[in-house]
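G.,

No rush on this.
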Amino acid sequence: MLKSGIYGKYRGTEYEITVDMDNNVRVKTEEKGKIDHTFEDLYNNGVYSKKVNPGELMDCVNIDIYGIIQREKVQILQEKENEFQVATGSLLVGSNLNLPRVDRDTWLGWVPKSKVKLIEEKSAINPEDL
């Protein structure tokens, strides 16, 4: 599965990092091997999270993933075994790639992975700025 979003290390283990509605910084994971009794499954959906102090986080990065198809830049939304779901807000790109138009400003479709060049951009983040 592609990693996209904010990630960092908490006590030597990498987690996805989020900020909740109360501006609390939380680490989260679906991997039970990464949790202890201090993590909670707030919504009973198999995602475990824990409120942390930003000063406890190390090596924080923001990861953005996008794809290039026929020299056109597209968003990567999901992946299946052999396909990526891609989207664009550009009429020209959507038309050039024969993507179905799903609303006024969105073209969305599944494309074989072999036709997509993945680009991953990482930028360092200061956890105190989250």
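When you get to it, here's the other one too:
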Amino acid sequence: MSNTCRTTGIGMILIFGLAFFSGACKKDKKDPNPSINYKEYRLFNISGGSSVDAGSFRIDELQDGNTKITILISEPFRQDGTGFQASVNKKDSEGNELVLSNLGLVNGGSGSLVVNPVLSSGTNLPVKYNELVGPYGYYVKILNGANVQARGDIE
């Protein structure tokens, strides 16, 4: 084999290696709006008369002050091919349920939903973390049709 062929072969390997590693580095991009604080909560199902653990949800405070919610329903409460409507609600002084945000559908097969950012149903603007977390009386509710599949208070 001539020196030219060996040099070309080595050159090709070096070019391929550089392309591979530069591509791998590009995939490691940082989140442009990372979480700076979060709280985790439990979801419960009370359809059987007593409170049963039905999963969890996490509320992240993003760097811009907005909110991200991640919901995970436990295996026994999942149903393939079904979507469970999720929302953030609060009861007013008369006991009427008010919807702060319609979060969308929790995937019944995986039991998961990620909403980033959480948007107010009334204004379609992002909900700020400090407006949601704390002593405000909000809760996450997950419906299976008209029935409550799971619910968890935000404290």
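Residues 11-27 have pLDDT under 50 and may be disordered. The longest strand covers residues 35-45.

Enjoy the weekend,
O.
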